[in-house]
Amino acid sequence: MNKLLKKMMVALLSLGLVQAAWADNVPDFKETFQVAKQGNAKAQYNLGVMYEKGQSVHKDYVEAVRWYRKAAEQGIAEAQFNLGLMYYNGQGVRQDYVQIVKWFRKAAEQGFAQAQFNLGVMYDNGQGVRQDYIQAVQWYRKAAEQGFAQAQFNLGVMYANGLGVRQNYKIAKEWFGKACDNGFQPGCDAYRKLNQAGY
After folding, report:
1. pLDDT score for 30
2. What confidence score (pLDDT) does residue 31 get?
3. How far is CA 111 from the centre of its chain?
4. Does the CA dihedral 61-129-23-67 come out positive or negative?
5. How far apart are CA 45 and CA 124, in angstroms?
6. How far is CA 4 from CA 35, 158, 189, 191, in A?
7. What pLDDT sits at residue 29?
């Protein structure tokens, strides 16, 4: 495989964590606040989103973290994921890789594809955990099988470079193709390069 393709895939492998999950059709702030205070986890999550985005209220990351945590502790995967991102970005809390991994893992274990991908990135880069390509591949695969394009691409990179799996350009090309089919342009570029190389 040519050096340019290898460099491109290594560079793209480190594409950042995916961003926060937003609630759809977030209701009125007062109503949400009242329901959240009564312990409703979905309302607590929605309130966290409102504070994080500054939607119907002044943006306040500390309050966003507070409400995400309440919802996360009740098992809301989106809140667990967003709380992990707040720790990752140091928004409303000090950056803490142990907490990041903890909350991403909780959401990932519930099948939340964005969290599975991000947990894969953490293992891939050795952030908050010992670097472990086998674990990275496992989490990428879980997200990739749900159609998550960035995970499909990263899984292709792992196969192309033999990280955590036996090097296999044919399988790498398949994953790049899936990422491309899902609209992820770097997957299209990598697929084309492997195709041109005869794989």
Report:
1. 84
2. 87
3. 12
4. negative
5. 29
6. 55, 16, 12, 14
7. 80
Q: Flag residues of the chain having pLDDT under 70.
A: 1-27
Q: Are 138 and 118 in contact (CB under 8 A)?
A: no
Say how many C-beta atoms besides its own lie within 10 A of residue 4's C-beta: 9
Collect all residues with Cβ–Cβ distance below 8 Å to 38 and sequence separation of at least 6: none
Q: Which two tokens stand for residue 38?
A: 């009564």
Residue 14 pLDDT? 44
Q: Which of 76, 156, 150, 155 is nearest to 113 (CA)?
A: 150
Q: What is the pTM of this model?
A: 0.85
Q: How far apart are CA 134 and CA 153, in angstroms?
A: 16
> Which amino acid, residue 84?
G
Contact 115, 77 (CB under 8 A): yes
